[in-house]
Amino acid sequence: MPDIKPDTMTETGRAPGVTSAPRGADHANARPGVAKAPRQRRHRGHTGEALLALAMTTPAVVLLLVFFVVPVALMFGLAFTNARLISPRPAEFTGTENFTMLFGDSLFWASLRNTAYFAVVVVPVQAGLALVLAMLVNAKVRGRNFFRTVYFIPVVTSMVVVSLLWRFIYEPDGLLNQLISTVSFGAWEGTDWLNNPSTAMPAIMIMSIWQAVGFHMVIWLAGLQTIPGDLYEAAALDGASGWRLFRNVTWPSLLQTRTFVLITITIAAFSLFTQISVMTQGGPLDSTTTVVFMAVRTGYEQHATGYAAAVSLVFFVIVLTISLVQRFLTRERA
């Protein structure tokens, strides 16, 4: 091997033309496949996570497809046909005939007015009462867990059971009239609440608010407990208390919560059905008939599936529009 003189060495300490192997090459050459093992394990790990996620989401996706996507698609299709629930004749495409009949149907407009009346009263009253209850049970007082439980019990009770109980309360000789007679010392005997067109819908409103207010109380309570205590302390140092504290600290901090509460109450109010079906069957004189009750009765009792689908489609568009408007009005402004 020829001698290499020091003056011919490069700055890196190597002779000219002599190159070094890449860093770690000796180790990789000595043990082939070692560098690829971690990558393969990571790939198998990602595959396992993907399969687990797919297995966990599949039941929810199947339920969503079966009970939402498929019914909505059928509704859109049947709304333009003369399909009947039980008929030897196949369904035929009729275009917009169902919608023409619907917009000329006085019962549809009466049902829409009743639904709007129910929603306009129930949404603000239920949301406001739920917020008041949430603020009361959020206070640091003894027994607040007891009151939280008491307010929430009607929510976990079946709506059918609640409707039956309140129907007995509203009977002419029911608990409510007996209480009124006792308190007024017999001066007023009450009325037949569910068979009086002027009192039937307000009676259902009161029962509906009583049953559902506990659920939205919990939602408000969750929102109240996310407000930092530092905001209240800073506001108190500035002299804020009572109404000013609520208006300047509590209410602005509940923006996302009140959006959720208002939208959910509105959707529930417009989908009023169970109370009507159990307590009044749409009477008296269609004073409690709602759009959902009309659609169900038209489809299952009168077997006019196509017409019922048209009712549902129009109502779906109305509720969607109202929800979008609510979302726009309650959005967080920059």
What is this structure, in a nutshell?
It is a multi-pass membrane protein. The protein has 14 helices and no strands. It is an all-alpha fold.
* Radius of gyration from CA coordinates: 33 Å
Helix proportion: 55-70%
Number of helices: 14
Number of domains: 2
Number of strands: 0
Shape: globular
Instruction: Say what the CATH topology of the largest domain is.
Output: MetI-like fold
Unreliably modeled segments: 1-30
CATH architecture of the largest domain: Orthogonal Bundle
Structure description:
Keywords: Cell membrane, Membrane, Transmembrane, Transmembrane helix, Transport. InterPro entries: ABC_transporter_permease, MetI-like, MetI-like_sf. It is found in: Cell membrane. It is a multi-pass membrane protein. There is one protein chain. Helix 4 packs antiparallel against helix 5 (about 145-155), helix 4 packs across helix 8 and helix 5 (about 145-155) packs across helix 8. The protein is mainly α and about 325 residues long. It is built from 14 helices and no strands. The chain has helices spanning about 25-30, 35-80, 95-105, 105-140, 145-155, 160-170, 175-185, 200-225, 230-235, 245-255, 255-270, 275-280, 290-300, 305-330. The chain has two domains: about 35-80; about 105-330, MetI-like fold, CATH 1.10.3720.
